[in-house]
Structures are given as structure tokens and as C-alpha cells.
Write a sequence for this structure.
């Protein structure tokens, strides 16, 4: 167990040591073996069937899910008493990351093991778990999650599906339509949300064979074509009263708490997909010749490879740092605790901000990687015979499901402000300190003996910028700040970049003692490359927030502070990028 348990969002107002973060290099032999098993499964079992799966031969998906069950890959998060492995979140994220290179199949897997299984694990009664959980974690049955409706996406509580108690009191009759259900056509058990008496938002466990339930046709999608996406149509669907999941009227707890894990797991999955796409891009660049030399020798291509490597490093660092945070907190909850999973869920909910950050940052890293891999392929990146085209189409959905990136961005300052109002986070006090520092000249010099001193100073300064901007926004808009979405989106981007950069720097510092000189040069270049990118992006977002929030002398002061707080000396950046690119091109894959 960690010596210190961090609160959610504490990274914005405090310091973290390299010894306080979990990094991929900390994986145990057991965790690495699970990662290798997952990788081998994808390479040996899924890849040969990938084309058939893309043409919606879902019988392959069903059989592959059963093989996942045989390998234990569906039971990582399930409790031991019901046949699960009950492993930590770091292991769960590693499996999600490794299976991501399976393309559409990984969507079926992630939906099943995440939002399909976890509502039952966290909220199911003993009888419900006895009846369903073993079937789900063995792969005998496939699970799906039905929240979205044709007229309610981000506004989940605006759902119109209804549930009415039958006259004999034995069933609830469900009516309505659920939209965009992943695994819809192949699932045996659905978690369906409906309002009892049009009022009490509630979750139900509904079997595929339920009278009154039917599955709509497959949606014709832009990407992830090999995953099933359908409507689930409810016409007086007869659901036994014992299949109510959790408490009546408390369905929102299930919907939103499970989505925290879904967002987190998505962050891991898209990071794995980004690694695979970059590998394909580098190998193509080494093979493709123009002007009698490989295009990987050209500076324009090398810069892309360096930038993408740095962004993936930050995404990976962020995901496993968050895994460590959650695992450390969950480890403090004794298994014999009454209502264990209530406490467990609160432990995860503590990091709702970080889960939203993982979803947004990592999905946008994959978007950049997929786009640039198409560009590296040139015209061939537009041809279906090359995998770059598929990466590009499949990537797009990740910025939409598990809550759009806009919704997740709004959650970050929204949750933070709510906690500050409750006194859980001393945001106002820290913002006042930041304002004081804004008007106090700084003459501190960097200690060159400290690894990544410049980057650490940048992280500390970016936190000051965040606090100043947050304080200015609250001061101007008061309670109405929650409705100022443009301001909140800009402030969220500052917070996202802070968590990503700090995670990358702390991981790099922790890695240093075990690296050769050549590996250190590549690592140093990676950190410098990402620090420059993060500083530039944060400066842009911060200036936007300042212009949205202030005017006159206050605006002038804020802009001056932003220039000071986002300043980063990236001397040697070109050489740093070249060192990263050369190493990645030689390895023909993501470096770390």
C-alpha cells in the first residue's frame, strides 16, 4: 500500500514525488504475463479473423469472447467468490491496452468487461451474481449496456424509457428504445435503464430472451464496423421484479459511477491503439522510398514520429498513474467492510476528474496519431488495403462515446468547483495565493542537478496559471460560472495538460536510474518534446480563458501572468526531436 493516499484533483494544488506514482515500469511479473497473454491472443486468434469480423461475421466475435473467458481475460475485475480474479486496476488497464490492437473486437471486449459487467459486480445482489456473473466472466454469455436513447445522449437522465409494475406485482413492463447499444445483436444480458412510473430512474438486468424485447438492425457506421451496434426495442418487455439492479430511483448512481471506470478504461485502450498505429506508421516510413531514400530519413516525417512518441508517452504515463491512484485508495478498504462495493465505488468516484482527463487526453492523442499515420502513408493512407485507413475511421468514435469529450471537459471544472464549495478542496485559498504570486516577481533559478528541473518548474507554474484563471472566473461569474461553458472548456484544457505533463515528467524521473545513456537521451528528448507541446497548448487555452473572463487592467495582469507561467526554455528542441525519431525509427515501434 502507498505511504500516501492522494485525493482526487489534488495534483492541481499540491506537489507529487516520483515515488508517489505508479508507472508501467513497475509492473510485476504476473502483470506482465497477463499483458503477454493478451497480446498473444490478439496476434494468434483475432488478427487472422480481422477481415471477417470487419464484415460483421459476429459468430467469430462470440467464439473469441469464449476464448477470452478461457484465458481469464473476462474475469479480471470480477470478485473471487464468484469465480473472478479480482485483480487491480493497473492489470485491468493493461489488458485493455493490449487488446486494443484487435480493432473492432476490442470494442466488443471493452463493452463486455467494462460497462457490461461492472454494474452487476458493483450493484448486483448475491442472487443476481449467482445467476449471471459466472456466465458473463466465462464468455458463455455476452453483456451489453443500454443507456442512450434516440433523444437522450449526454442528457442520460432525460431518458424516456418507462417501467410499469404489472398488476400481479411480479414483473416490470419496460417500454422504449435504446440507441447505439454496443454488442446489441450478440448480447445475452442487457443492463437497461428506465423510469419507473416515468419518474424513478432505475437499472434492470434484462435477458435477451425476454418477452417483448427485440433487437434492431445493425447501424451502418463510419468505423468499428466489426462491432455490433443496434437499437434495443422494448415493447412491454416483461422483466422479473428481482431483476431490478441496485435501488429503485438510484439508477443514476450506476450510470455515472460505472462510466468513470469506462472512461478510464477507454484511456488505456486508445493508448494501446495509438501504439499500434505508430508502429505501422514507422514501418511504412522505413519501407516507402522517395527520391531514392526512405521517407523516414526526412525531417518532416521524423518530426511527426517524435511528436507522436512524446504524446503517447504522456498518455501512457497518465493512465497508469491514475491506475496507481485508484488502486492505492481501494487497497485501504477492507473486504469485510459492510456495503463494500458502495465504499469501492466512492473510492473510484474520488478520481472522477482524472478519469475524465484520461478519456479526453488519450482519445485526442489517438486522433492525432491516426491522422498523422494516414499522412505518413500519403495516398496509400486513403486505401482500404492499408491499415492506416482503418485506424482513421475507427478512431473517431472514441471522442464521442463514454461521454463526449465536451461533456468530459465540462465535468473537470464542474466537479472541482462542486468539491470546493463543499470545502473538500481548498481551491479559493490556493487561488488567492496564486494571485499574490502573480504580482510578486520571481527570481528563482533552476537547480541543474535536479532531473527535469525546467519541466518541473513548468508544471508548478502551470498550476499557478490554472488557479489564477479559476479564481478569476469564479470572481466574475460567481455561482453562474457553471453555465459559462466556453470558459470551463478552456480552463479544463489547462488542467488536462497539467496532469499529462506532470505524469510524464514524474515517470521519466522514476525511470532514469535503470536506463542506458542512449535510452536516457531518447527519454530526455521525449520529455522536452512533450513539455514544449504542453506549454504551447496550455498558453493558448489560458489566454482564451483570460479573454473570456476579464477586461481592462485585470486582463492585462492575467495575460502577463500567463506569459510568465507558461514560459519554457526548450533550447535544443530540434536535436531532442531528432534523437527520439532516430531511436523510434530504429526500433520500428513506440519506444517505451
Amino acid at each position: 500500500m502507498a505511504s500516501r493516499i492522494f485525493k482526487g484533483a489534488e495534483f492541481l494544488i499540491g506537489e507529487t514525488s516520483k515515488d508517489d506514482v505508479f508507472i508501467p515500469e513497475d509492473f510485476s511479473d504476473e502483470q506482465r504475463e497477463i499483458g503477454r497473454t493478451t497480446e498473444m491472443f490478439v496476434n494468434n486468434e483475432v488478427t487472422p479473423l480481422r477481415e471477417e469480423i470487419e464484415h460483421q461475421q459476429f459468430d467469430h466475435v462470440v467464439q473469441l469472447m469464449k476464448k477470452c473467458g478461457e484465458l481469464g481475460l473476462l474475469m479480471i475485475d470480477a470478485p473471487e467468490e464468484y469465480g473472478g480474479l479480482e485483480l487491480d486496476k493497473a492489470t485491468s488497464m493493461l489488458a485493455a491496452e493490449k487488446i486494443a490492437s484487435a480493432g473492432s473486437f476490442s470494442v466488443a471486449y471493452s463493452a463486455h468487461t467494462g460497462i457490461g459487467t461492472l454494474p452487476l459486480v458493483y450493484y448486483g445482489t448475491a442472487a443476481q451474481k449467482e445467476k449471471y456473473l459466472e456466465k458473463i466472466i466465462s464468455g458463455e454469455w455476452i453483456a451489453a449496456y443500454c443507456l442512450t436513447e434516440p433523444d437522450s445522449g449526454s442528457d442520460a437522465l432525460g431518458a424516456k424509457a418507462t417501467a410499469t409494475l404489472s398488476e400481479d406485482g411480479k414483473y416490470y413492463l419496460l417500454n422504449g428504445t435504446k440507441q447505439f447499444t454496443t454488442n446489441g445483436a450478440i448480447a445475452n444480458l442487457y443492463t437497461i435503464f428506465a423510469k419507473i412510473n416515468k419518474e424513478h430512474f432505475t437499472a434492470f438486468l434484462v435477458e435477451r430472451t425476454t418477452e417483448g424485447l427485440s433487437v434492431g438492425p445493425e447501424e451502418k457506421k463510419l468505423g468499428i464496423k466489426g462491432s455490433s451496434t443496434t437499437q434495443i426495442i422494448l415493447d412491454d418487455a416483461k422483466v422479473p421484479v428481482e431483476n431490478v439492479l441496485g435501488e429503485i430511483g438510484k439508477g443514476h448512481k450506476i450510470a455515472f459511477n460505472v462510466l468513470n471506470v469506462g472512461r478510464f478504461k477507454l484511456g488505456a485502450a486508445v493508448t494501446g491503439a495509438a501504439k499500434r498505429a505508430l508502429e505501422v506508421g514507422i514501418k511504412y516510413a522505413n519501407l516507402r522510398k522517395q527520391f531514392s531514400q526512405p521517407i523516414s530519413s526526412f525531417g518532416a516525417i521524423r518530426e511527426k514520429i517524435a511528436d507522436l512518441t512524446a504524446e503517447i508517452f504522456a498518455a501512457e504515463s497518465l493512465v497508469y498513474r491514475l491506475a496507481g491512484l485508484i488502486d492505492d485508495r481501494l487497497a485501504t478498504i477492507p473486504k469485510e467492510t459492510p456495503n463494500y462495493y458502495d465504499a469501492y465505488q466512492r473510492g473510484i468516484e474520488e478520481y472522477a476528474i482524472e478519469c475524465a482527463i484520461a478519456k479526453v487526453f488519450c482519445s485526442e492523442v489517438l486522433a492525432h496519431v491516426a491522422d498523422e499515420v494516414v499522412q505518413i502513408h500519403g495516398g496509400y493512407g486513403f486505401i482500404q488495403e492499408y491499415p492506416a485507413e482503418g485506424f482513421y475511421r475507427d478512431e473517431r468514435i472514441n471522442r464521442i462515446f463514454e461521454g463526449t469529450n465536451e461533456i468530459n471537459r465540462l465535468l473537470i471544472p464542474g466537479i472541482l468547483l462542486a468539491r470546493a464549495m463543499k470545502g473538500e478542496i481548498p481551491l479559493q485559498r490556493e487561488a488567492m495565493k496564486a494571485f499574490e504570486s502573480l504580482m510578486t516577481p520571481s527570481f528563482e533559478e533552476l537547480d541543474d542537478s535536479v532531473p527535469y528541473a525546467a519541466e518541473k518548474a513548468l508544471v508548478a507554474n502551470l498550476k499557478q496559471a490554472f488557479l489564477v484563471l479559476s479564481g478569476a472566473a469564479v470572481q466574475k461569474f460567481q455561482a453562474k460560472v457553471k453555465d459559462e461553458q466556453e470558459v470551463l472548456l478552456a480552463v479544463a484544457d489547462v488542467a488536462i495538460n497539467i496532469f499529462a505533463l506532470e505524469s510524464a515528467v514524474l515517470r521519466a524521473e522514476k525511470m532514469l536510474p535503470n536506463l542506458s545513456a542512449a535510452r536516457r537521451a531518447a527519454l530526455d528528448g521525449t520529455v522536452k518534446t512533450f513539455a514544449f507541446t504542453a506549454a504551447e497548448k496550455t498558453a493558448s487555452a489560458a489566454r482564451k480563458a483570460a479573454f473570456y473572463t476579464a477586461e481592462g487592467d485585470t486582463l492585462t495582469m492575467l495575460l502577463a501572468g500567463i506569459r510568465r507561467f507558461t514560459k519554457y526554455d526548450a533550447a535544443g528542441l530540434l536535436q531532442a526531436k531528432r534523437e527520439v525519431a532516430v531511436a523510434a525509427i530504429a526500433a520500428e515501434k513506440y519506444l517505451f
Q: What stands out?
A: The mean pLDDT is 96.
